Amino acid sequence: MPSKRTLQTFREQQRKTGRGPYHFMRSHGVADGHGAGRGYGNPAKPVGLIYSIFRPSDDATVFPFLVPSNFFAMVSLRQAAEMVEQIRNDHDLAKQCRALADEVEQALHEYAIVNHPKAGRVYAFEVDAFGNYYCTETRQHPEPALAALSRFRKTKRQDLPEHAANAALGGESLLLHWQGGQRTGRTARWQWT
Fold first, then answer.
1. What are the strands of the beta sheet with 173-179, ordered from one edge?
2. d(CA 102, CA 107)
3. Averaged over 46-57, what is the pLDDT?
4. CATH of the domain at 87
């Protein structure tokens, strides 16, 4: 069940008024073992997306807005709003959950869709809202975020060109298609519809 602390943490990690209280650095100093920028992650424009300096695979992000995680947060906040209304009868908390979900959704539409040079319009894997993006997937346990993304959009199977890097958008259809990643190499392929 969501709490006000969850909303507070998400809002702090939107970093609209500063870096926030959360950072992480390992003592061994390996570049991919902790977030860049002294554990706060690389710079990004505060646009309403939620920062993540680590991926589900525990690799540090290149750009701090991890798109699948923001979709997961958006869907989870909407589900939480329903729960707190029905179980706790807390309409104020439900309203706050929905407002944050709407803000994240708007920012995803504005900043997470990029023009990939070969695949066309896709949702990037990571963005910084300054125009930089990263299209890949690390293959380790992406299913929760992908499930959230699929619930967000109606899905149907499509064929993508061999070079497709991430998710192809086309009308009301969405096919999630990944090729390679940091730990799996370029030739590892999978898709989820």
1. 113-116, 120-123, 167-170, 173-179, 189-192
2. 9
3. 90
4. 1.50.10.10
